[in-house]
C-alpha cells in the first residue's frame, strides 16, 4: 500500500509524495494478489480448494508492498467484494477479512481531522491491573467531527504518526484483526516482561469497549529511532474504531528498546 508519506518516510515527509511512484506498482501488486488467490484455490494448497482467512491475508499482503492502496488497486478489489463468483469457495472469515480490508483501504488521498488526546487515568488504572503490559502502554483517543470523514487507512496512519511517532519512523500501515488476534498480541512479551492474564483481559475489554458493536479492530507494527530509548525501539499499536467510524482509541505497546 502506498504510504501517506507523513508517516512512511524516515524523515516523516509530506503526505502523498510517494503516490506517483507507487502508482507504477499497481499492476504488479494486482497480479501478485490474483496469483496468490489462484494458488489458494488449488486442491494441493494446505486448505485444499477453500480460501482460508490466512490465505486471504497473505493474498492481500500483495497490496502492502508499497504501503498504500491506490485507486487502481481499490477498483480491482471492488470487483471481488460482493462478487458471488469470486467468493465461491472463500471461507466466511476470509470474506470478513476481505470486507474489512476493503473498507479500511478506501484509497482516500487525505486524512480526516482526527484529534487525539491522552486519556484520563494510567494504563494500569484503565486495565484494572498493573504490570508489564501497563508499563509498556501509551493510550490516546479522539474523534472526527461529524461530516468530516471517517477513520480509514490514511487517517489512522497519519494521526498515529503525528500524535505518537517521532521524526524517524519506519514505514507501517494498519491491518484488520480479530479479538482473538488482539488477545494473542497483548499476551506477548513486552519491553518490561510478560503481561499477566489480568492485564491482558483488562486491556482487551478496554480496547473493545470502542469497537465491540462494529468489530473494527486494526493493528500495525512500528519501529522508530529514539522513541523508546536512545536507540531503536519497536512495538505495535492497536486502533479500535466505533460503529460510525468517527471515534478512535489507540493503544501503543513497546515490545523492545535499545
Explain what this protein looks like in three dimensions.
Helix content is 40%, strand content 17%. Residues 1-24 have low confidence and may be disordered. It is globular and about 50 Å long. It is built from 12 helices and 6 strands. The protein has 258 residues and is of the alpha+beta class. A 6-stranded antiparallel beta sheet has the order 1-2-6-5-4-3, sandwiched between helices. The protein has helices at residues 5-8, 19-23, 26-40, 53-60, 71-78, 84-87, 92-104, 123-127, 132-136, 153-164, 179-187, 197-211, and strands spanning 115-118, 137-143, 175-176, 216-225, 232-241, 247-257. The chain has 2 domains: 21-104; 115-257.
What key attributes describe this structure?
258 residues; alpha+beta; six-stranded antiparallel β-sheet; 12 helices; 6 strands; globular; signal
Provide a short characterization of the protein structure.
With 258 residues, the protein is α+β, with helices and mostly antiparallel strands. It contains twelve helices and six strands.
Chain-wise SSE layout:
Layout: H1 5-8, H2 19-23, H3 26-40, H4 53-60, H5 71-78, H6 84-87, H7 92-104, E1 115-118, H8 123-127, H9 132-136, E2 137-143, H10 153-164, E3 175-176, H11 179-187, H12 197-211, E4 216-225, E5 232-241, E6 247-257
Antiparallel strand pairs: 1-2, 2-6, 3-4, 4-5, 5-6
Tally of contiguous helical segments? 12
Biggest sheet features: 6 strands, antiparallel
Give the beta-strand count: 6
Radius of gyration: 18 Å
Return the domain count: 2
Helix content estimate: 25-40%
State the strand order across the main sheet. Answer: 1-2-6-5-4-3
Keywords: Signal
Signal peptide: 1-24
Amino acid at each position: 500500500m502506498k504510504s501517506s508519506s507523513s508517516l512512511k518516510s524516515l524523515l516523516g515527509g509530506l503526505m502523498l509524495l510517494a503516490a506517483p511512484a507507487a502508482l507504477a506498482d499497481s499492476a504488479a501488486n494486482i497480479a501478485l494478489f490474483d496469483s496468490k488467490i489462484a494458488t489458494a484455490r488449488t486442491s494441493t494448497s494446505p486448505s485444499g480448494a477453500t480460501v482460508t482467512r490466512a490465505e486471504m491475508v497473505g493474498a492481500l499482503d500483495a497490496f502492502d508492498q508499497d504501503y498504500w492502496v491506490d485507486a487502481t488497486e481499490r477498483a480491482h478489489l471492488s470487483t471481488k467484494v460482493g462478487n458471488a463468483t469470486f467468493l465461491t469457495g472463500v471461507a466466511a472469515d476470509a470474506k470478513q477479512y476481505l470486507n474489512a480490508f476493503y473498507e479500511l483501504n478506501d484509497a482516500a488521498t487525505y486524512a480526516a481531522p482526527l484529534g487525539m488526546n491522552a486519556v484520563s487515568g494510567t494504563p494500569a488504572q484503565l486495565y484494572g491491573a498493573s504490570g508489564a503490559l501497563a508499563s509498556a502502554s501509551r493510550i490516546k483517543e479522539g474523534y472526527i467531527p461529524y461530516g468530516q470523514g471517517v477513520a480509514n487507512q490514511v487517517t489512522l496512519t497519519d494521526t498515529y504518526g503525528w500524535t505518537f511517532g517521532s521524526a524517524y519512523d519506519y514505514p507501517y500501515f494498519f491491518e484488520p484483526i480479530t479479538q482473538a488476534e488482539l488477545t494473542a498480541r497483548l499476551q506477548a512479551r513486552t519491553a518490561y516482561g510478560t503481561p499477566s492474564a489480568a492485564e491482558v483481559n483488562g486491556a482487551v475489554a478496554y480496547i473493545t469497549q470502542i469497537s465491540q458493536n462494529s468489530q473494527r479492530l486494526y493493528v500495525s507494527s512500528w519501529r522508530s529511532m529514539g522513541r523508546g530509548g536512545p536507540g531503536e525501539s519497536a512495538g505495535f499499536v492497536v486502533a479500535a474504531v466505533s460503529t460510525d467510524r468517527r471515534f478512535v482509541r489507540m493503544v501503543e505497546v513497546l515490545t523492545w528498546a535499545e
